[in-house]
Amino acid sequence: MTLSPYFHNLRTAYRAELDDLTSDSEGKDVLQKRLTQKRKEIGFLVQMLELSPEMVAVAFHRAFKFPQPRAIEPLVGLEAAELPEWHTLAQSVVLEPWAVGMAEAVLKEPAGSRFLVAAATLEYLQTHARLGPADAGASDADDDADDDQDDNEPVEDDETPLSADDARDPQTRRSREDAGSDWLSDQGFDRKE
Predict the structure, then answer these.
(1) For a FRET experiment, which of 26, 81, 144, 191 has its CA 20 to 30 Å from that of 132?
(2) Cβ–Cβ < 8 Å for 35, 17
(3) Are 52 and 12 in contact (CB under 8 A)?
(4) Three-class SS of residue 174?
(5) Which of 90, 92, 86 is nearest to 113 (CA)?
(6) What are 29's strand-pairing partners?
(7) Nearest to 14 by CA among 136, 120, 132
């Protein structure tokens, strides 16, 4: 199973959105509370279906059951414009009862039908799909290349980059982390312990 660039990017954004919702500044698990809040705001969120679909898709986290999961697998290789309409998945995807009202609100939007297919596919990828390194395509390698490129960007005058020796020295790395935590604390952010 190979992810299309569309689903690779959307999956990455979806996971990041779920990660952002998972814990508060104290590290407490608040995912269910935040998902409940998002679900109450679906009337507002539908405005973001095309601009930021991952922000709406998280409201549908755990909203889908897959009685025929193999029917979903071909969808992961499609681009957004190639996705089928929602009604074509009637035998392959079942909505949880609590999500039916949200789906009805989404389906009223011009892009709603294909969005629901994308949201179901994201949930399938999150819960059922097991992608190997080759299945994720070259995009993971591209991400690594992007990370390497970031290391080569110029450093601001007031930043001191870590040398290779500093990066390996836990004491140096720890003192820099402490300094960073001190600065964030001074700016009003909670300390991460």
Answers:
(1) 81
(2) no
(3) no
(4) helix
(5) 86
(6) 23
(7) 120
DSSP assignment of 142-162, as one string?
Answer: HHHHHHHHHHTSPPPTT--PP
Kindly write down the DSSP assignment for every residue of 73-123, as one continuous string: GGGGG--GGGPPPGGGGTTT-EE-GGGHHHHHHHHTSTTHHHHHHHHHHHH
Q: Which two tokens stand for residue 10?
A: 């959307």
List Cβ neighbours of 105 (8 Å cut-off, separation of 6 or more).
Answer: 42, 43, 46
pLDDT by position in tens, the chain (length 193): 789 999 999 999 999 999 999 988 888 889 999 999 999 999 999 999 989 999 999 999 999 999 988 889 999 999 999 999 999 998 899 999 999 999 999 999 999 999 999 999 999 998 876 544 444 443 443 444 444 434 433 334 334 444 444 444 555 555 666 666 666 666 666 666 5
| Model confidence pTM above 0.70 | no
